[in-house]
Structure formats: structure tokens, C-alpha cells
Specification:
Helices cover 61% and strands 3% of the residues. It has 319 residues and is mostly helical. InterPro entries: DNA/RNA-bd_Est1-type, Est1-like_N, Est1/Ebs1-like, TPR-like_helical_dom_sf.
């Protein structure tokens, strides 16, 4: 080393830099990550203890839940845009007299909604337990808020689409009762004679399916977002299904949906009645036999365990 260089000052040595850690005192007992750390609160003047690892895990879990909610919300927005574009194209085709869109389009759109709805319901299932709701209240609140936006957006679109159909209900007299119930005044729409019958049948099918889907969305709102079963209100759900039945009474789908409501209210008598109606309809529901078998098994198991209770709900229509 060159002796002509000036000596290094003690304040500029590497072992005296400001960021250097102090030597660990071997006599000092260090806290483990699983132990509790005291924190002084200025407001109360007391020391509060919390688990450092537990706090970090709760924060990280809440962040992951928020990211899941945002991801599902983006999927819902994309699905809604595709839905609106497809249905606007269908409406333009009907107005131009080019003929109705194939029913597979509506089915694919509804299936996309149901896939997102299944994701939401799977996440909401984790908060059925009261302990989970207490541990992650922020994640539950954000998740329910996003699910409410999803349900509301789907309902708004189907209502607009249904209004478009019912405004043209003069083409199909079967839609007159539903239009009068919703206070919609039909308008005269010129339709070519060669597609009048085809357009009429398609409007009936589309209106019937839309009423069923609106009832399903309202039912999901009650079952997933209203925690207390005693506070659930089924009036809107039943009205949608009843309007669907007035349009197409030969179908058994709306009877099957009414049976689902009765089952949610633990009314086995009404559920069995509507399942039989769905089975005996001219266009019987494909899952009615299996649902009826499941319902009988539940009744027999509850009766053998001594938990069967007779219950009759009066909010369901008699027919």
C-alpha cells in the first residue's frame, strides 16, 4: 500500500456507516415470529399486542381476495359487452326483417353468465361460516359488492331486452298478458309475411326464456346475498316464473323453478307438487325425475331421523 495516501478517518470507515446493524446482544431474548409484539397506542395510553405473522397473513389473504374480486369483475364486464353486442345484433336483424337469431346465441350468452355466477357462489361459500366472516370482513364485503353489481347488470340488460320483445307483442298475442302486467304498450311493427310465423315463435321462446332467467337472477340474489332465510322475499322471483308460465303453460321449466324455491324454504309438500307438475307437463323438464327422487330421499331421511317438519308456504301460486 502507498504510504503517501492519507489515513482513512474513523467516521468514513465501512464499519461505521449509518446503515450498519448493531451487534446482536447474546443476552437479549429475541421474539419469534409466532410470539406477540407489544404496540403502544397514543389514544388510549395502553399497550396492545398483536400477532405479527397473523396480521401479515390476514393482510395478504385480504389482498388476494380483492384481486379475485377485481378479476371476476373484469370478466363480468367483458361478458356484459359481448352480451349487449350479440343482443343488439339480434334486435337489428328483427327490425330489418332478416329473421330471428338462432336460439343457441342466447343459450351461449346465458351459459357464460352462469359460469361467472358459479365462480361467485363458490367464493361466497367460504363465508357461510360465521368464523370466516369475522376473520375476513373486508373480503366478504368486496365480494358481495361485486356479485351485486354482476346480478344487477344482468338484470338490467335482460329487462331492456324483454321490453324490446314486449313492445312487439302484437306479433304474438301470447305476450299480451305479460306486456299488460309490466305496463308496456305494444307498437305496430311491420313484418314480412314469409317470416311472420317464425318470428312469432321465436319471440315467444325468447320472452319465455328471459322471464325464467330474470327469475333465476332474482333467486340467486335472495339465496346468496340475504344471509337470514327468514328475511328472504320471493315475490319478484315467483312473479317472473308465473309470467313465464302464462306465456307458455305447456312447458315444465317454470314448475321446476318454483320447486327450487319451495325446497329453499324447506316446504317439501310444495316442492313435490311442483316437481310432479314439471314431470307431467307437455314439455316435461328433463331433470324433473331426478329432482323428484332426491326430494323423496330427503323426506325419508328426515323422517327416519325425526327431523321432518310439515311446512306450507303461502306465497307460491296455486297453479
Amino acid at each position: 500500500m502507498d504510504s503517501s495516501l492519507p489515513p482513512v478517518s474513523s467516521s468514513h470507515r465501512l464499519d461505521n456507516h449509518p446503515g450498519k446493524r448493531e451487534p446482536v446482544n447474546p443476552r437479549r431474548k429475541r421474539l419469534k415470529s409466532t410470539q406477540f409484539t407489544p404496540v403502544f397506542q397514543r389514544s388510549t395510553g395502553r399497550a396492545q399486542v398483536y400477532n405479527r405473522r397473523g396480521t401479515f397473513e390476514a393482510w395478504h389473504q385480504g389482498l388476494r381476495g380483492a384481486n379475485r374480486c377485481e378479476l371476476i369483475a373484469r370478466c363480468c364486464a367483458n361478458c356484459k359487452r359481448i352480451f349487449q353486442h350479440s343482443c343488439h345484433a339480434t334486435c337489428r336483424n328483427l327490425e330489418a326483417g332478416a329473421g330471428p337469431a338462432p336460439p343457441e346465441v342466447e343459450s351461449r350468452i346465458w351459459d357464460s353468465h352462469m359460469r361467472i355466477n358459479s365462480r361467485f357462489r363458490k367464493l361466497l361459500l367460504h363465508f357461510r361460516d360465521e368464523q370466516a366472516r369475522k376473520k375476513r370482513p373486508v373480503e366478504e364485503r368486496k365480494l358481495k359488492h361485486q356479485y351485486l353489481k354482476f346480478i344487477s347488470g344482468a338484470q338490467q340488460f335482460y329487462e331492456k331486452y324483454l321490453k324490446f320483445i314486449l313492445l312487439r307483442s302484437k306479433v304474438a298475442p301470447e305476450l299480451a298478458e305479460a306486456a299488460a302486467e309490466l305496463q308496456i304498450v305494444p307498437v305496430d311493427v311491420p313484418t314480412p309475411a314469409n317470416i311472420a310465423q317464425e318470428l312469432r315463435n321465436t319471440l315467444i321462446e325468447s320472452c319465455y326464456s328471459t322471464f325464467i332467467r330474470l327469475g333465476d337472477l332474482s333467486r340467486y340474489y335472495q339465496t346468496e346475498l340475504v344471509a337470514d332465510p327468514k328475511r328472504r322475499e320471493w315475490n319478484h322471483v315467483v312473479n317472473y316464473y308465473a309470467l313465464a308460465g302464462s306465456i307458455k303453460p305447456t312447458s315444465g321449466i317454470f314448475h321446476n323453478q318454483l320447486a327450487i324455491i319451495a325446497r329453499a324454504e324447506a316446504d317439501h309438500l310444495q316442492a313435490t307438487y311442483y316437481l310432479y307438475r314439471a314431470l307431467c307437463a307437455t314439455e316435461s323438464h328433463p331433470t324433473a325425475p331426478g329432482n323428484l327422487e332426491i326430494e323423496f330421499r330427503k323426506i325419508l331421511n328426515a323422517r327416519s331421523n325425526g327431523k321432518y317438519q310439515r311446512k306450507c308456504t303461502h306465497f307460491l301460486p296455486a297453479a
